[in-house]
Amino acid sequence: MNATRRLTGLAIVAALGLILGNELRAFAQAPAAGQDAAAKGPKYTQAEYNAEQACAAEKVPAAVIKCADDFVSKYPNSDLLVYIYPLYYQAYSGQKNYQKMMEIADKLAALGDKIGAQEAAAAALKTFEEVKKPDNVTDDAWAKQKTVSQLTLNGIAAQAAMNAKDCSGAVTYYKAALALNPDDLTFNYRLGQAYLCMNPPQQMDAFWSIARAVTAKGATQAQSAKVKDYLRKLIVNYQGGTVCDSLTDAELNELLQLAGTSAERPSSYSLPAAADLAAAQKDMTIASVVADLKVGGDKGKLTWLAACGLEFPEVPGKVIEVVKGSDSIVLKIAFVTSDAEFEAATTPNMDVKVAGQPEAARVEKDSAVHFTGTLTSYDPDPAFFLHWDKAKVKEEDIPKEKGAPKRPVRKPAARKPAAKPS
Q: Which of these, 176, 183, 112, 172, lies nearest to 150 by C-alpha position?
């Protein structure tokens, strides 16, 4: 394992040596060959070198982290941080501490010029393929160490690309890392961010990748919940903030279910953007909504996303039943658009909740009404039904309150004429 770590470490050093320049290449050879540090005029002391080697010799992630913490505390500006940060990264990877892995990747990429870091890591990845397995190392051990190093290098290259605003390059490196470990929360999340920073942004691929981060097996409940909340906000913003909460939740749950079973987004998967919803609303009427919802399919889905939560004015209908409550009235109404439909209607296909208008209770069965209300939900065919809230019935359609019945006029009793005076 020592030889394996040394060779994989050399591959990382080959990359990061390009970041810090020729002087790092000079001392990079020292740990490998055990040369006298003083002879080369290095940028580190013998004590620093010994401390770094002690950390490299640790095998338990917690011990590696403690050792690295001590090193950074004692030598915060050491050139040997180029060795310490990869040790951190691998240790946090072993603990599945994805937040710390991201922080270390940022620090590692920030050690030198960002473009140089990207090119250096790419060069190291190429060099790494040429490193032969030591004879005294098993195939399994070599494959494991090779994968860890490739993940680290791809992560470095991807983060450097992001820092340099090379979002397409970052996508390439993150996807390469995910080919090695498809269920990695950090790389899936960062891939989503890389898609978002492309010009133009690739929102569907971004949503898919971030959804994969939510469903990553190694994610804790808290991590999953945090990323899920972030993804929901992205979807709400993408759709303009006008979609009903229940529909956004349904879209999110469907996305999580689909993304959890496939690393790649199928080309058929998409969500309507704010512009699509605005276009659907442009010439929308309640009659067109009813027609589209009954047809169903993609057209019906788009129409419902655009229509849910909207207020429609003067919706026509025939009253089938009036249900009086303590604080509201529910009208069971059949939606009609013609005299023939009005005459034929015998069953309701809408319930309309009216609040703050007690006089609406005077609406009579089988009468024609118009109301303005908010469309909140619907039941698809075969039992098609629209549900309305915050409705007001048109005043002209409410019968006038009947006056109190007049009291009968009583004729005064006949009185006998007064007796004539004698």
A: 176
Query: Cβ of 419: how many Cβ atoms within 10 Å?
Result: 6
- H helical segments located in 164-220: 167-180, 185-196, 203-214
**CA–CA gap between residue 217 and residue 228 (Å, rounded):** 14
- 194 and 296 together in one domain: no
pLDDT digits (tens, 9 = 90+) for 141-162: 878 878 888 888 888 889 888 9
Q: What is the pLDDT of residue 39?
A: 44
Clarify whether residues 171 and 276 are in a common domain: no
Question: Residue 420 domain-assigned?
Answer: no
The per-residue DSSP string of 211-264 comes to: HHHHT-TT--HHHHHHHHHHHHHHHHHHTTT-S-HHHHHHHHHHHHHHHTT-SS
- 346 close to 320: Cβ distance less than 8 angstroms: yes
How many CB atoms are closer than 10 A to CB 397? 19
Summarised one tens digit per residue, pLDDT across range 72-113 is 999 998 888 878 887 887 888 788 786 787 677 667 666 654
**Sign of the CA dihedral running 15, 20, 22, 28:** negative
H helix or E strand, kind and range, residue 78: none
Q: Is the domain of 234 the same as that of 320?
A: no
Among 243, 249, 337, 237, residue whose Cα is nearest residue 285: 337
> What is the reported pTM?
0.69
Rounded to an integer, what distance in angstroms lies between the CA atom of residue 313 and that of residue 393? 10
Confidence label for 326 from pLDDT (cuts 50, 70 and 90): confident
Residues 295 and 319 both lie in one domain:
no
Looking at the structure, tell me whether residues 244 and 361 fall in a common domain: no
Q: Are 155 and 189 in contact (CB under 8 A)?
A: no
The token pair that represents 314 in the structure block: 């003067």
